[in-house]
Design brief:
The chain is α+β, with helices and mostly antiparallel strands and 546 residues long. The protein folds into three domains: 157 residues, 3-Layer(aba) Sandwich (D-Maltodextrin-Binding Protein, domain 2), CATH 3.40.190.10; 108 residues, Alpha-Beta Complex (Dipeptide-binding Protein, domain 1); 221 residues, Dipeptide-binding Protein, domain 3, CATH 3.10.105. It is 31% helix and 21% strand. It has 17 helices and 24 strands. The longest helix has 22 residues. The chain is globular, with a radius of gyration of 24 Å. It starts with a helix and ends with a strand.
Length: 546
Amino acid sequence: MRGPVRTRRLFPLLVALALAASACGSPGDGGSAASSSGGGDRLTWAIETEPITFNPHQWGQNKARLLVFNQFDALVARNANGEFVPWLAKSWEVSEDGRTYTFELRDDVTFHDGERFDANAVKANFDKLVEPGYNPAVASIQLAKFKSAEVAGPYTIKITLKEPDGLFLDFLASPLGGQVSPKSLKEAKELKAGGPDVVGTGPFILDRYVQGQEVHYRRNPDYNWAPQGAAHQGPAHLSEITYRFLPEAAVRVGALTSGQVDVIEGVPATEVRLIEQEPGLTLQTALNSGTAFSYYFNVSRPPFDDKRVREAFREAVDLDAVLRSVYQGTATRAWSIVGQASPFYDPSLERTYGGDIAKANRLLDEAGWTGRDAEGYRTKDGRRLTVRTVASAPFVRDRRDILAQAIQAQVKQNAGIDFQVKIVDQGTAQQATEENEYEVFENSRGDSDAGAALNLILPKNAPINRTRFTDPKIDKWLAEASATSDQARRKELYAKVQRAVVSEHAIVFPIYVPADQIAARSGVHGLGFDPGSGTPKSAYEVRIGT
């Protein structure tokens, strides 16, 4: 009994130290939890991942999505049924050829800096998004079909595309479509990084950011333009909200159970039971949309230039056992590059590969990896069968480091593969990518439309095509799927893509479907998940009460 008691006593100490560190240099924020401060409209939320940027146009971390829509609004939104509904745009029309979108905008919206939101502001955002060097990935992928934005009236904007784009509205509803003040676009000192001087029209105003510690928002008292279908209209319920960056799961959970924060996100499997058994706490979870967390094999380098080795790696892993061990039954196994939460998921791939150790070894024998060194690893022509993953620390979450270690042990034991796991800073990871010094690329995308994610990962010149694999058929299917709004046809095309990359070419090893969790004190209401992405939504509807 004494061991567990000592562990529980250690929690408050760890939490106190972490929170004390996060509070340094930021006095006067009213930042203690509402329950302990007595401030019924102030809330403290511990989050797992610190954003790399607060500029929505530069958004790339799914975990940071909840912060974007605190500060910024988009032209359209998705409702609970996945349908697009008005937000800053009151209505829109699409031409018969699908190339022209005409939006009628609200005329009662202002940015946090007092600038008026109008058609000129929307045009300024589009012009910035396609400006060379601003966000090349967005310009070349999401807005590849964009032609022009024309002001047709003070509150009328006409967007012309080069060709139809079935994903255009999805882009407008995404964080990347968040509307930034034209003044910020011109004058912000750190535009790409974002911060207090990059402002939007959202329900909260970012007024303080302490790197490595916390970000603080205060209520926008003028806010009265929530998207259609929101739980309420008018200003947010909360007057202040502080998000503290606590990457250690035990510290986040301890902060919640000790009453030092009101809400946490990112509850690991190891802590779920503790949350469920703790009186006065609630737990919610939701699968993310978009792509599954997967290992992508770099086919431009040996040994993954050989399909047999790629297949052998997958067969050498008893993934069900690994997921049970790492996530204690809470993870949903992935079978495709597309996650099960997506309407485009192809279930025909289920149980078609993986976990056949005999097959893994037969394939490696066929590929010529028949030797063994003193440590039991396979060799060929005097070289060890080695593959490397180089992961960027800011993107490592959900115990993915522990997961990699479990897979590492399995491929060594079952097939003699030396799987080297390196978790490094973002700069080092980027350098490894640019220099093609990796064999495995880890990734998941939380895009509300899985097609948007596939366009970033699979085509020949896609920004994050880290497999370096090309197939004209796949490019053609993706292009056709993006050009149509016929959902049945899109599902058919994306099924072909999934079968090609998973079965035919084996360039991807789907592992699990990411999920998000929110745990909170029972007096916190209005928490939930974005209907499009499955990630925690903004704090606009959150309130504290009985």
